[in-house]
Structure formats: C-alpha cells, structure tokens
UniProtKB/TrEMBL annotation:
Pfam families: Transp_cyt_pur. Keywords: Membrane, Transmembrane, Transmembrane helix. The chain crosses the membrane at residues 56-75, 87-108, 120-145, 165-187, 194-216. Gene3D superfamilies: Hydantoin permease. It comes from Colletotrichum spinosum. The keyword Metal-binding does not apply. It comes from the Eukaryota. The gene is DAL4-2. This is Allantoin permease. InterPro entries: Pur-cyt_permease (IPR001248), Uracil/uridine/allantoin_perm (IPR045225). One of its GO terms (cellular component) is plasma membrane.
Amino acid sequence: MGARQLFRGSTHVVRSPAQAAEMVQLSNAQPEPTQGKFGRWSNKDLYPTLPEHRTWNLWSFFAFQFSIALSPTTYNVGASLYAIGLNWWTILIATIIVSVMVAILLYLNSRGATWYHVGFPTIIVAILYTAIQTLYASQFMAVILRCVFGHKWTDVPNRLPPTAGITSSNLLAFGILWLLQLPFAIIHPSKINIVFRIKSVLAPVGLIATMIWALVSSKGADFQGLGTADAVTGAALGWSFMKAWNTIVSNVIPPLVNIADLSRYGNRPSQTIPMPVGLVISKPLVTFLGIVITAAGYKQFGDVAYWNLWDFYSSVLDKYWSPGARTLVFLAAGIQAFATFATNLSSNSMPGNIHVPSLYSTDPYSPYFFYKGFNLRAFGSWIAAVVLVVPGVSGNLNPGSVGVAATRIYNMGFLLSTVTA
C-alpha cells in the first residue's frame, strides 16, 4: 500500500520519523495505484517511489554530485573572490572548507528521502534556475554555431533593442539549446542517471584539456593580473574569507535543497555516501581549473580576464581561426553545453513537481500535521535565520545604507543562518 494509506490504516500513532520509516520498510506489498485519486493535487511521482524505480546506486550518486560542480557558476566563482582581495590559494582553501561543510549537510538532507522515497518539490526555484542555466548553456551553443557557420553566424543582424539584454543570434542559440534539452526533461529520473555518469567523465576531461592547451599556448599563466582589488591582510582578510564562504555556497544551494528529489531513487541511505565525496573532489577542482584557464588566457589574450568559459573559447577562435582550432573548440564547447544542461536537469527540471498530498491531509496523526496543520518550529527557524541577514541584503543592494556590522553579518549569512535555524 502507499505510505499515506499505511500511516492512516495503522492502529499505531506515528510519533517519530524513525517509527514512520520502520513502518514503510515493513510494508513489502506493491503500492496501491493512486494516480488521480486526489485529483489535481496529485500525480504518480509525488507518491513514494516504487521499488522497480529505485535504480540509483553508489556510482550513480557519486557521478551525479561530482558532475554538479562542472558548471559555469562554479567555474567563474574566482571572479567574485579576486574582486574582494583574495588570491588563488586562499580561494582554493575557502572552496575546500565550504565543500566539506556543504557535503555534510547534503548527506544529511538526502537520508530522509532514501528512507521514505519521497521528494521535496521546489517549483519556484526550479523555474528561476532553469532559465539561468539554459542561458549559460546557450552561450556555449552560440560558440558551437560560430564554429560551424563562421562569419555567417556572427553577421546575423540584431533586431532586438539594447534593453533586451540579448542579441538576435544569442536568442536563437537559446531556443536551439532549449529544444535540445527538452527531450531529456521528460525522461523519468529513475532512468536518467546515465546522463550524469557520462557528464562526470566528459566534462572534467574537457576542462583539463582546455587548461593544458591554455598553459602550453600561453607558456604559463599570469595570476597577478587577475586581481581587481588590492590583496587584503589581517582582519580584512578574515572578513573577505567569510564573504568567500557565502559566495561559494550560493551556487550549491539548489542541489542542497532539492537533493531529496533524486536520493528518493536509492534503496538505502548508505548508497548516498559517495555523493558528498564527489562534491568535495569536484568543486575545488573546477574552481582551480577556472582560475588557471583564466590566468593563462589573461597572459595570452591582451591582459583581459575571461572568467566566462564561452568568452575564452570565443577568444581562441578570434586568434586561431583554423579548421583544427574550430574543431577543438566545437568539441570543447559541446561538452560544456551538455554538462550545463545536465546540471539543469538535476538541479532544476526534476525538482519542479508540486503539491505533496500529505501536506493537505486534515488527519491529526499525519506526519505533517504538527500543531493544527502548522509546523511552528519550521516557521520559527525560517524567521530567525532570515531576520539576521535582511539588513545586510539592503546594504548589498545599496552600499553604505547600513552599518559595517550588518554587512559583516550578511557576509557570514550562510553559516549564521544555518546554525540559528
């Protein structure tokens, strides 16, 4: 029977998550067909995952989380951190520390879903970040089309006004990329782990090959030229380091929040242990590769720091316009486009389900009922965590509008909010 019916049909009151998990595990019967039973409030993917769909294994979870960091948001994080006075090795140390912290939270967040086999829908976040990651991937698509069509692509007239923030050719690339990733979005999550396995192999190979080429062709790298601010020392270094934590963790939030939507396809919590390991390895690696490639490009392309990888590839085409260069850039940009929309699938598309039926139950013994249908502890935790950083948000949007203390609290927002909540 389904988990909801199991709880309601039992003569025992469910008093803890552990007891509920035990009841679910003791029920070996095939879940009853429930699709459409709750009308528009339900679909089959909102119920506990059927045993035949629990296809993710150790390698699947490792490949998934290892591949998450292989994205533009991790690659170019160094740009923000150089701007606050850090250098490459302090950035790397901050990335390692944050990766370990987040890996622990990631594993803890994944355990509940591997016990109960239910997800945690986040539709609003999914809509926002799907658009952002699709835009990133479309930038690589524009590079690919330039490799194929040459000046015919770059000479496409722009019919859009400057206020659009995008050119006609880039909008076309966006549409093409969206059409290419659409078929992957309709594949059931239980069958899509092969995509992350492929990405976990191709994407790092593409980045490492790009780094080797950049270092060889430029005969080294210029790390000093990347700094847009004077190097900080003393107390200023400490506060910049804390701000770096906040910056680095910001692009890990989507998978940290919605990991339940994928860990539900495992059989037991121990299968997700390789997942935090993959994060700790890949995030510092990609950050380091991004810094090295940018520093090598800075030395080679006229003292310009191309923190976006698609800009780096475009500069390669500007300088080395030959069949060989176009072929290599085509392959490299193709790998990164694939890697980016694979990130889109895992972090945004699949976590977009809405309406968990159990949340609408009026049964006082429902595991989600709490106090008259409200989880007061959750509300209190959220308010306490958010209130701490609200003044700092104002200061970030309007520099100088709040005091130094509020700004520093905001720069420590993730750590303070997590501990407070």
